[in-house]
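Workshop exercise sheet. Pairs work together: one partner reads the sequence aloud, the other fills in the structure field after running the prediction. Swap roles for the next sheet.
Pair: D.N. / O.F.
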Amino acid sequence: MKRDLLDRLDTLRAEGQAVVLATRIADGTQGLIHDGRVVAGNLPVSETLLAAAESALRRDKSGPAEDGLFIQVFNPPLRMILIGAVHISQNLAPMAAMAGYAVTIIDPRGAWASQSRFPDIDVVQDWPEEVMTRLAPDRRTAVVALTHDPKLDDPALAVALQSDTFYVGALGSKKTAAARAVRLRESGVEPDAIDRIDGPIGLDIGAVSPAEIAIAILGKVTLTLRGPKGR
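Structure field:
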């Protein structure tokens, strides 16, 4: 790889940007694709190239592509933001970490949001809306609201729904979800954005205990990120 290409790649990765290195196998010509365009290198731009790069980023998988290309993906880490240091979070946080997510738990309630309850997990004792704005969720981020407290969940959800986070879920029954939708609309959130919320949350596997609910949530997050196997 040429030095200027490597330097640009390092810079984009340091900024937490999603980037693809495309190499034409026949002659080694390379190009960096970021945000839907070639930003460095000598590889000619084509619809096939840009489509292959976008597909690889979405699937988070490197490999050969059409036109004799090899696509190498450099995605930023997956993140999961949990609103509420509750019992479900105690199960979901370590599960998500094992699945490759950088997990952050947000809850201003010090008695709940303690490091002793969440060892090795980033716990922030602050109001979710403020922390969410600082964290700037992106399409590599899943946001899960678990407090059942509108003054904590709703503002965090409003921030998440203004981003392109790939998953937004909230705990509660259908009745709770309907009431939440009304509150969010009244606060100025567009109906189409509210429809993105997965609620009742998770896969319908009959989950009852906090651990089972955590499994259902992580399963739905994974399904949303990856899609059904074979598609």
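Discussion prompt: The chain has two domains: 3-74, 78-226. What would you look at next?
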